[in-house]
Amino acid sequence: MIKVAIMGYGTVGSGVYEVFRTNKTSIDKKVGQELRVQYVLDLREFPGDPVMDVLKHDFEDILNDDEVKIVAEVMGGLHPAYEFTRRCLEAGKSVCTSNKELVAEHGAELIQIAKDHQVNYLFEASVGGGIPIIRPLNSSLTADVIVEISGILNGTTNYMLTKMSREGLNYDDVLKEAQAKGYAELHPEADVEGWDACRKIAILTSLASGNQVDFKDIYTEGITKVTAEDFAYAKKAGCAIKLLAVSKKQGDTYCVMVAPAFVRKENPLYMVNDVFNAVCVEGNMLGASMFYGSGAGKLPTASAVAGDMVDAARHLGKIITTFWNPQKLELAPVGEMTHRFFVRMKSDAKDAKVFGDVEMIDAKIKGEIGFMTPVMSEDAFARKAKNLDIISMIRVAG
Ligand code: HSE
Predict the structure, then answer these.
(1) Which residues does the UniProt record annotate as the domain Aspartate/homoserine dehydrogenase NAD-binding (predicted)?
(2) Quick check: pTM over 0.90?
(3) How many Å is the maximal CA-CA distance in the chain?
(4) Active-site residue (options: 200, 242, 248, 249)
(5) Domains of the chain
(6) pLDDT in tens, 338-382
(7) 154, 273, 294: residue to mutate for ligand 1 pocket, most atoms within 8 A of CB
(8) Vertex 341: Cα angle to 192 and 249 (nearest 5)
């Protein structure tokens, strides 16, 4: 029998507890012995909930029980999650987490600490919720050089953009509705400003490159400026608008960006709607491959955390190699990234010619024009756009 603990009984933590209760027989069979949830850590009380039988309020109770070999850290946030994780690893306990903030900030360091203590730090649930993407990058695609990762990595914004597209609503109305339904948080900045997707693409790029990508280096735009008019143009052009996180190999490094983008029907990300996430990975041998599924939510995320706990149980005393060193990766300047640009201007069509051979899009909106430029770099676009009266610009996915 292997004892495990869950730190945090919020949405994901209660999900992990539920996964163990519902699938106990199957999980124990797959591990080859019983995996018993010995403790759940939370400061609160949960009267009437079966968790009361195992609830603890003091972290030291978990830390000091040498029989606890695996801990799920599903508290979220940096502190005290960082300190608790470190101390568990140093005490010889493997840690499995959904905490993308912690993984993005301290992933390489915590993997190294785990290695030094013959245990594992696993974080499948930190990107794409229940979608397996960390393990494929870390073990299945190791014979490939990853040349591009592009993904819809945030469920909240994908839900909002899908709603705007289907119902012709404005950003503010969709946000209010999403908040009322509990899809968007009261303080939605991490999602709508793109910071959540930014941390996730930083984690994926770290795994693709093997070095530490600082999420603060990544150019990030959210969806707050996307309007119903932008959607009218997108539809006319046969495109969806998605918040894309893109990482492209450039020489020895990667060029990374998070921003809304026009996505054409031919692109597999076009049909990824509502709260679903998807990640397209292009390997130099594999070619293109897409991972799709529930990118957020209690049980999908808990499923990934519990799956890591099973893996940790199968590897007690053995290190699962993760290719992610603490050495920082200097990203390529984002100005070198190339794509087409969709532009709206308060002008007439002849002014659009500054961008070259543009493709006009008539969405029948008075007092403005909309068009797509040829492929050019971010820097070239910025130079040409400098003195023009541009209403909005959205990149076009390749
Ligand atoms: N807020 C995140 C999302 C949760 O909407 O995708 C999952 O990481």
Answers:
(1) 8-124
(2) yes
(3) 74
(4) 200
(5) 2-129+298-328 (3.40.50.720), 135-294 (3.30.360.10), 334-396 (3.30.70)
(6) 999 999 999 877 889 999 999 999 999 999 999 999 999 999 999
(7) 154
(8) 80
